[in-house]
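for the writeup, i need someone to sanity check this before i put it in the appendix. the sequnce is what the collaborator sent (i think, or maybe the updated version? ugh). structure was predicted straight from it, no edits. if anything looks off just tell me and ill rerun, i have time this weekend
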Amino acid sequence: MGKIKLDMHGIFNNQEAIDRELRRVIDQAVLKKISLIEIIPGKGSGQLKKHVLRFLEEPSVKRLYHRIEKDDKNFGRIFVHFRF
């Protein structure tokens, strides 16, 4: 069971880079059959987290993973679970 970690602090203000990085880690998880992605949008205003969740809800993305888990202990973290 592998895990990919994506810390978004460095790209939080670049919409295209955000989408590109999200797509990259999802494609990598599918390709390598990695069961978990940990995305760290950080706390901030919550706008980046909302953007990440909207991206994950897109039908072309949503069909690739099993479920999303919002970390109840850390507002600034999202887990994406895959099932292969």
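The CA atoms of residues 22 and 74 lie 20 Å apart. The mean pLDDT is 93.
thx in advance!!
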